[in-house]
Design goal:
Blueprint lengths: L1 H29 L2 H8 L5 H9 L8 E6 L4 E7 L5 E8 L2 E2 L17 E5 L4 E2 L7 E3 L5 H5 L8 E3 L8 E2 L2 H16 L5 E6 L5 H6 L6 H17 L4 E5 L2 E5 L3 H23 L4 E5 L7 H8 L18 E6 L24 H4 L9 E2 L8 E2 L17
Parallel strand pairs: 1-10, 8-9
Antiparallel strand pairs: 1-2, 2-3, 4-9, 5-10, 6-7, 7-8, 11-12, 13-14, 15-16
């Protein structure tokens, strides 16, 4: 009887050992490069493939990425068969860290700003943050200013210490779009990282910010892209960004557009608008994720969630100049003929309708004139 019990215990122990070994093998498999490769090789979602077809974009056509800290948005642009870039999709950023402004040193928690180039070597299918790609910081401009730091990524998992953090689903799609473009022959894709949308209004608003000279350089590059729908050529001359276009004709278009934007900004300043700075405890997050968190949705390992309560506070540096009241016309002593005017002529001209974008099912659409499509942009889509 004791012998039978001993054999039973031995058999049970062997079963436990086999199960333990099986669990270890499973754990090793989950951590293996083969599984990571499977994750990294996931196809572009069918809905996005359809969107590309609708916008006359080949699946492997070049891409370009633009990000905006204040608005917490990352855009993927793709080249159409006509050779121009058009906005394919916009993704709300789950977390970025630091303040508006460039990264200057290791440990300052700043997400970088500037023009960066991402090659196939910077794509990381084995990232601890689901999937990622290195932005390319520090670039030539950063190095010219003595900036330090490295491994600043766009990655999954909603946690940032100098990176742009997306959800895992988002980075999976962004990674797939970049992977396919690079595999089809694009040598590197450009990432344009901005503090905010580079409008004339924002340049006037932030004119007193210590970073304004740097941002004016970024504005010139942004205007090149806005005017031509082509990736600008980027160089650094005298520790400053310099931009150019592929042809003299495109360069002329870009320069004229930039001059017009500078004139608009100068006019806004002359009109007496307030100047502001925007402060953060430690970076920000798109409003849709803040709403989800308040609703009890688990966003995973969000970095420094307590800091988000103090994100994006506008501080007035120079108050707006009071608008003078219009002079009241005095009635003439002599009789004046009153000309009747048609009510329709007095009706205000309606503003063009803004495009409403729903970030996800059940979410409140966001209305933002910055998302209004430009004449050469066919369609904008948000995705999570």
């Amino acid at each position: 009887m004791n012998s039978l019990a001993s054999r039973g215990e031995a058999a049970f122990s062997g079963l436990r050992l086999r199960r333990l070994l099986g669990a270890c093998a499973l754990a090793c498999m989950l951590a293996s490069p083969a599984l990571a490769a499977g994750k990294a090789e996931a196809p572009v979602p069918a809905a996005t493939v359809t969107l590309m077809a609708q916008n006359n974009m080949a699946p492997g056509a070049p891409i370009l990425i633009r990000s905006y800290k204040k608005e917490s948005v990352l855009e993927v642009w793709k080249q159409t068969r006509e050779g121009r870039y058009a906005l394919l999709k916009s993704f709300p950023i789950c977390r970025w860290s630091g303040q508006l402004g460039p990264k200057r040193r290791q440990g300052d928690r700043q997400s970088p700003e500037g023009f960066y180039s991402v090659t196939p070597r910077q794509m990381n299918p084995n990232s601890a943050y689901h999937l990622s790609f290195d932005t390319g910081y520090p670039n030539a401009y950063d190095r010219a200013h003595g900036a330090s730091g490295s491994a600043l990524m766009v990655h999954g998992i909603c946690s940032s210490a100098g990176c742009y953090a997306m959800t895992n689903q988002q980075i999976g799609e962004i990674y797939a779009l970049a992977r396919d473009a690079l595999a089809a022959g694009q040598g590197a894709f450009q990432m344009q990282a901005y503090p905010f949308r580079m409008s004339a209004q924002n340049m006037a608003n932030y004119r007193a910010d210590p970073n304004i000279d740097f941002w004016r350089q970024l504005k010139e590059g942004a205007d090149h892209f806005e005017a031509t729908a082509q990736e600008p050529r980027v160089s650094v001359v005298g520790a400053r960004y310099a931009f150019s276009s592929r042809t003299p004709e495109l360069e002329q278009i870009a320069r004229e557009h930039h001059a017009q934007e500078e004139a608009r900004s100068a006019a806004l300043v002359k009109d007496g608008g307030a100047s502001i700075r925007t402060t953060y405890a430690d970076g920000g997050q798109h409003a849709i994720f803040m709403a989800m968190a308040k609703a009890g949705v688990n966003l995973g390992d969000v970095s420094r969630p307590e800091a988000l309560a103090y994100a994006g506070r506008d501080v007035v540096v120079t108050p707006a100049r009071p608008t003078p009241k219009p002079a009241v016309a005095k009635a003439a002593a002599t009789s004046v003929a009153v000309v009747a005017q048609d009510d329709a002529a007095l009706a205000p001209i309606p503003a063009p309708p803004l495009k409403a974008f729903g970030l996800m099912k059940g979410a409140v659409p966001i209305l933002d004139d910055a998302f209004a499509p430009r004449p050469w942009v066919r369609l904008a889509q948000h995705g999570i």
